[in-house]
Specification:
CATH superfamily: NAD(P)-binding Rossmann-like Domain
Strand order of the largest sheet: 3-2-1-4-5-6-7
CATH architecture: 3-Layer(aba) Sandwich
CATH topology: Rossmann fold
Distance between the termini: 39 Å
Strand content: 5-15%
Oligomer: single chain
Structural class: alpha/beta
Radius of gyration: 19 Å
Length: 331
């Protein structure tokens, strides 16, 4: 485990020379994204942050932006409206960013929720939670890869469930879980986790100049378990059992934000970033080199050595072909 004191010591070294100069946060209006933005701004570094969120979050987010400016006047936080469950909207937001920037140092992806309810589809025919947790995230990466490639120490962080993949967790015959009986809260979540890791590893292999992280945040009281229109029984279960359990076991907001900031900036993962004198992280190929890092809430690398070879052998080709087919109209 990387101790909290080590995390704080590393983050204290973040300055204008080591901070991500241009960062894009998708899902930063609440939860882990918001906590990480606050931690980044509080370093006092000169940063420009594109905070992407839905129209319904605009008013409270402007209040948050004013709070951030008071903490650090050198930080520029740009509200960028977009309903990113829709891939057409994701493309539009990316085009806006690309028209303004020549580089992106950090892409931080947290949009999504636990899909405990029934299957709901966007107007583009994708299940809402899967579009947020997987398709939209991969589309952001693919659009912004040229800008990431122009940065000195570019990093992509997708927060979902890195290291929690299971060999049986991916349904290759129904990747969108559209067939009757295939969609369920746990099934969908584990499918989305495996899809993220499989595609992120391919992107990491194809883009060795970019560090990729799939993070499992552990228990953080973000309110995500209450989203997704659960049925009556599940709603009561969440309210009476799951919510209190999350509150009991969660990391504090402060620690969660600091630990994710560490993942965004430390050279522990791949050697680029804030100097790290501790043990180097091990990537998903079980090597102390750059690539994809599966990181848990204690900032330990969890390569999931028994499952990853199976995903590479059996899933990678089908998942990549399917993903390209879905995203192609929006590239």
């Amino acid at each position: 485990m990387v101790s909290y004191k080590e995390i704080q010591a590393s983050n204290a070294l973040i300055n204008d020379a080591t901070a991500p100069r241009v960062a894009v946060f998708v899902g930063g209006t609440s939860g882990i994204g918001k906590l990480t933005i606050r931690a980044l701004v509080a370093t006092g570094a000169t940063v420009r942050i594109y905070l992407v969120g839905r129209k319904s979050a605009e008013e409270r987010t402007h209040a948050f932006i004013q709070e951030l400016h008071a903490i650090n006047p050198k930080a520029e936080v740009i509200w960028t409206e977009g309903e990113v469950a829709l891939l057409a909207e994701t493309k539009r937001v990316c085009e806006v960013i690309k028209s303004k920037e020549s580089r992106v140092d950090l892409l931080f992806l947290t949009a999504g929720y636990a899909p405990f309810g029934t299957r709901r589809e966007t107007t583009e025919g994708l299940e809402v939670a899967q579009s947020l947790s997987y398709y939209s995230r991969m589309l952001f990466i693919l659009h912004l890869l040229p800008l990431l490639g122009a940065a000195e120490a570019p990093r992509v962080v997708s927060v979902l469930g890195g290291g929690m993949e299971r060999a049986s967790s991916i349904n290759l015959g129904d990747l969108d879980l559209k067939k009757p009986g295939n969609f369920g809260g746990i099934t969908a979540q584990t499918q989305n986790i495996a899809l993220n890791t499989t595609t992120l590893e391919k992107l990491a292999n194809d883009n060795p100049n970019v560090t990729f992280i799939h993070s499992w945040p552990g228990w953080v009281n973000t309110g995500n378990v209450r989203r997704g229109s659960p049925g009556l029984i599940m709603a009561w279960f969440i309210r009476l059992i799951l919510d209190p359990l999350v509150r009991l076991l969660s990391l504090s907001d402060e620690e969660s934000g600091q630990r994710h900031l560490f993942q965004c900036t430390s050279a522990a993962f791949g050697g680029r970033g804030v100097q790290w004198k501790g043990k180097p992280g091990i990537n998903s190929l079980e090597k102390p080199a750059d690539g994809l890092f599966l990181i848990n809430f204690r900032c330990n690398c969890t390569p999931n050595a028994k499952v990853m070879p199976l995903l590479r052998e059996k899933a990678l080709g089908k998942v990549w072909d399917h993903t390209q087919e879905v995203l192609r109209p929006y590239l």
